[in-house]
């Protein structure tokens, strides 16, 4: 049986632990019966070990992983992780493989990192941080510098669960294992790329965080840029952390807002009162905790360019929004049309479209064939495959890397800084009021005058 990894969860009493982290752990333990984990929960609440056990049981049950609770040794310690003395008491005597998971708001994680010293940390300890990683490029750089004083980069795990999504990982197989696609994957053959992640969900009581972040920071700055990086990277020789992360970082370093014009290359909007799936939603600005003066967007779109030999000139449009009906969640790769269609073959010969849908996972290729009725008239045909859900939740996939001490699917420090650099000009342009904030009714497909991205 494998040696147990100790997972110390800072913020074990919070929403992130019970909603995402613990269900993912349960699923992972179910799929890997030899894996052993010891959980030490810490939080400011006066919980007992029995309280945490109950939460672990409920979270495991939520992911049909009840049976695995027997294999986890659980304990709870009350602690203020921004205090050096509490951290010292919590970490004293821990050995073997240890991961410290900061399931706490970013300001608390930063304060805890300031309170930690290298001497308190067990050898080889992994530090696991959630998004948002800093609130701008400078903040991310300062946090990286602090982390580098504590442990080597390979022991820092910046979580982005989109890197664990099966569709993101499907890009690797589709791109690199098919002669049919691999030579076409560049500006020579590709016209444009859209990466869209629209949601039916509204604010869900998260105003405290979301009203300061907005859709651009919440989704595009982190998740969708990571997907762009995997989609656009040069082929790495191996998928080990050094090769994979260098390839994705290189893409991010080359990424700029289209035409260096954040005003013309971005849009923003927020929802007004409406209904999603028959459930009424108030206007975003009337949601509890929202300050309308912040002008926070709930739908953001921005077009980027990857300025390198492979991609220069190809628009990559990233979009994500909340409270939308029939939400699109997909990567859409539009190929160029052929240069010439033989005279005598009529109908349109638009370029092929390859779509990767993100949940339910599906891949489809739309292309031109001769029509069934008249073989000299072109018709559109679609080949598609349902891929089924990945075996593991995206969070469980990322957690599995952490417990294996493999940071491949975690964001490297320089990439975290680049992601802020990439969106900064858009944030500035919006802050200066250069891009009007449009409105759309909750439950609609977005502002009527926005071009449909599908
Ligand atoms: C989170 C965002 O990181 O990702 C949420 O903060 C968003 O606003 C979520 O809803 C989307 O990811 P998933 O995998 O839950 O659809």
Give a written overview of the molecule:
The chain is an alpha/beta fold and 454 residues long. The protein folds into 2 domains: 5-130, Rossmann fold (3-Layer(aba) Sandwich), CATH 3.40.50; 163-393 and 407-441, Dihydrodipicolinate Reductase, domain 2 (2-Layer Sandwich), CATH 3.30.360.10. It is 31% helix and 24% strand. The chain contains 10 helices and 19 strands. The strands form 3 sheets. Strands 7, 8, 9, 12, 13, 14, 15, 16, 17 and 19 form a 10-stranded mixed beta sheet that branches. A 7-stranded mixed beta sheet has the order 3-2-1-4-5-6-18. The protein has a two-stranded antiparallel ribbon with strand order 10-11. A hairpin with a 7-residue loop joins strand 16 (362-370) and strand 17 (378-386). Helix 5 (137-150) runs antiparallel to helix 10 and helix 7 packs across helix 8. The mean pLDDT is 95. 6-O-phosphono-beta-D-glucopyranose (BG6) binds at residues 161, 199, 201, 218, 394.
